[in-house]
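Hi C.,

You asked whether I'd gotten around to modeling the 552-residue construct. I have! Everything is below, sequence then structure, no commentary in between.
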Amino acid sequence: MSSPETPSLSTWRPDLIAGLSIAGLLLPEAVAYSSIAGLPPQAGVMALFVGLATYGLLGQSRFAIVSATSSSAAVLAAGTLALAGGDSVSRAAVGAMLVLLAGVCFLIAGAARLGGLSQLIARPVLRGFTFGLACVITLKQLPHLLGVGGMHGDFVPALVGQLIEAIPRVNPAALLAGAVALLLLFACERVRRLPGSLLAIVLGVAASGWLAAHGVELTGEIRLTAALEWPAWPQSGQWLPSVELAAALLLILYAESYSSIRGFALKHGDQVNPNRDLLVLGVANVISGVMHGMPVGAGYSGTSANEAAGAQSRLAGLIGAASVLVLVLLALRWIERIPQPVLAAIVIHAVSKSLRLSTFAPYLRWHRDRLVALAAVLAVLSLGILNGLLVAIAFSLVMLLRQLATPRLAVLGRLGDGHDFVDTVQHPDAKPVPGMLIVRPEEPLFFANAEAVLAQARLRVEATQELRRVVLSLEESPDLDGTALEAIGDFAAWLEARGIELRVARLKDAACDALTRMALPQLPPQALQDWSVDDAVLAPPAIPAYSKGNTK
């Protein structure tokens, strides 16, 4: 296999086919995504060219296709509407500024080596957000499909109300064009290499004269002169919301991009470097913002299409960028004649893959993260795209903290005559060791749960007769913060007052170092050196006084 870093001559044929294929697939989508963002068509085309060229030159993944994405387009639309209102000229300038700021945020995150940043968005949140976002995007594209103009806002009940009010104004010609395009797109899914979007566009352009005569709106003029002037800076009161919106773009773009890049790297045994990807995406978004393009990221649909087309290296992305440039230069006047219902059909078809309920089936089957995924969907549908994303992330973090802060203490017993110690509730045949209480916190000890967990341990101690040793197994705690250390110190002193010895088993290095530095008299070094629970059970008393028995 060729290295993803250095495309070889043996890969140029499949890369050529893949580059031509993705250019034909993504160019119509780029124009369509511009309408989602409320920006002129050239914003999507410019972003597509910049994304393909930049990642092809600087990136690492040989399959990643960096272009405008539906999710970032929707977030950008919400941001520009909040900052600039309905003025299209102001929205374009504000959009360029937000893309530029998002690129700067990428560069700062890359320089700070925050490659794990995408982990702030859990997969159930991302899938729920994507599902809700697909619902909103589909609703907002239906008026273009019906020929009744656009809708404002992203609050779903309001969008449904606007759609119902617009039904009497449906343009039959627009509905016919959109329906035919949708049927063609879904039919072409069954033929792997048949470019359905190109076929729909060719038919739409061929019928554009008749459709325009019947009141169907076309794409309109696309001006590809690069707007190299500096994007408008935020006004004095808009800096904070602008930075917040740029950070939101960073989170959603990188979560989506790194998911695609890492998924295909694992599939093909390639290496990933998340910090490098942050920097490359930062460069791409800075250039796109300066040239008044849309935000760009490695979307799953484009990346999977590139792999399916047979790409072998990043050369496919560079060929795709060159193909986009050639297509635009030679066929610009035809691209300007694409009917809006056809573009709406392309967008609906693109996001339809995210509307499958089967996406949530694993969480229902596993009994894990069901509330998180549902909350993400409801947040987007009820609060809008941007607020929905932030609320969904916050909800997932709250649920995590709730789980970690819920104290659960397992009492361990010996399994048979072996060396294994397991939870006596889950394994009733496990037997306690006479004279000993073995406990294990089931979550990492930290400031939110340490006191409550060790309070439970005290209750267990008081309920156990003739106790001479407590073994605290900390295998779930990779490190200990100050609150946890103080709580363990208080617990050790409380046990000492009752003539009970404390030993700590299965300590990780960082936690062991912290307890060693505390230098507790109740926890001498030998009480911290038990590699297993069995070692702690069999060890001789660390302090001779404890051998006298329980004085409680």
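If it helps when you're writing up: The chain has 21 helices and seven strands.

Thanks,
B.
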